[in-house]
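During the second year of the project, the team shifted from modelling isolated chains to modelling whole assemblies. The rationale, set out in the original proposal, was that interfaces cannot be judged from single-chain predictions alone. As a representative example for this report, we include one of the complexes processed in the last quarter. Its constituent sequences, exactly as entered into the pipeline, are reproduced here:
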Amino acid sequence: MSQVRVSTKINGDAIEFLCEADEPLLDVLRDRLGLTGAKEGCGTGDCGACSVTVDGRLVCSCLVLGAEAEGREIRTIEGMANGEQLHPLQKQFIAHAALQCGICTPGFLVAAKSLLERNSNPSEHEIRFWLAGNLCRCTGYDKIVRAVQAAAAEMRKG
Amino acid sequence: MQYEAPTTINAAVKLLAGKARTPRVLGGGTDLLVQMRTGRIEPDLLVDVKRIPGMRDITAKAGGFRIGAAVSGSELGENKALKKAWPGVVEAANLIGSTQIQGRATLAGNLCNASPAADAVPALVCAGAVAVIAGPKGKRSVPVEKVPTAPGKTCLKKGELVEAILLPKRAPRSGDAYLRLIPRSEMDIAVVGVGVNLTLDAKGVCTAARVSLGAVAAQVLLVADAAKALIGSKVDDAALDKLAAACSAACRPIDDKRGTKEYRIEVAGVLARRAAQIALKRAKGSK
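Output from the structure prediction step:
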């Protein structure tokens, strides 16, 4: 079985890697590229802990093959902060204590950023439906929703 | 396992018709990759069709729409013309899974996964959608209800793949709707799904209807008696009663953790009535 050679862009950087034909993008990110922010919760697309964007579209990286990344543009949680400067969502998650164990947090942040790029002023209803594919077993979601609302308000002010 | 991403339909057909014993088509992968991971299937070849021109496009065709086999649910939901003409089809597709799943999942994949509880399939069936299938002997068009032949099985032969789904031209005063019942508010599998598509004449009398049921039999059902209950009526209470009775009568459901037989039979009638009322409103031009 020969490996697949893939050229792609991750968080703006041109990246090349070799992977197995059936290897999920999540495993490539974590085990080959050292980008361990995306987490494996379920491996079957139910929990959203592995959320990334591919060409701007929010997906579960456990349900994308590494080979499919050829020529695409991937964004992960590692590309969210600007150096030491946290993204408003990251700041508000901390301010609102919107996390406990933290396993789901990178997925929530990537998914919430994707929402705010499309809708700068989402209702609570819209936030809850957009994030329905991100599971959190600690917070009960309320703090997460408040943090996203606060980040949206902050970003609207500019 | 081998991974290939051909750039023409002919190359894809050649790969699928070749010496691989258990080839699979990779579109959105939201069912396929899960089945591979759980060991339910072990393909020796994956043919990723997303690099074939047209596979990711929604285009106007013969007054209707051609939806490439790799178009995602999100892309369907963002297409205003499609949503306006076929709101029921789009709402059914958009009910599948989460935002993340919507970023990948396709109509053609939902159809070919051949689950009796597939959400998009009843909506496509009542819309009169057609699957364009490419294969070693050329292309053929198959009504979507004929594609799944049993749970997990389709009519596709060796070397064949669905290239696109066609939605027909809309007659004036037409509307469609899809409703499903799940035990939660999101992210679950249908206990019952109902699709209704109808057309009215200028006086508001129903002249054509198609009604489909999901998750109540081994395959999605196109219920002729339910359509008959609507045709010739103004979709009034009496017609809706007949529709509900016809839908309940057509069910041949299983008992499982999501619902009992009796519950599914009852709910099929209730949802059919509600879906018909939504389709009626849409046919009359309100949202």
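Chain A has two domains: 4-79, 88-157. Helices of chain A lie at 25-32, 88-95, 105-118, 124-130, 142-157.
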